[in-house]
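Input.
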Amino acid sequence: MRLDHISYAATHDQLVDVVQRIGSRIGSAFTDGGIHPRFGTRNFTLALKNGHYLEVVCPLDHPAADASPFGRV
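Output.
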């Protein structure tokens, strides 16, 4: 098994604040990963070393979110 990223789940209302707060503390900016209709989520990512990354993800008000692990945050 290979670990390539760590996910931090937030609510939709907290997403931007969490991304800004973590980015500020780390000293790097996140990239908007967009909306993922298949999963009913939206995310931001922060590239780390060796192809690893940190993801902040939130569920959306979308039917697919009900079946997604992050849809049950």
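Residues 5-72 form a domain with the 2,3-Dihydroxybiphenyl 1,2-Dioxygenase; domain 1 fold (CATH 3.10.180.10).
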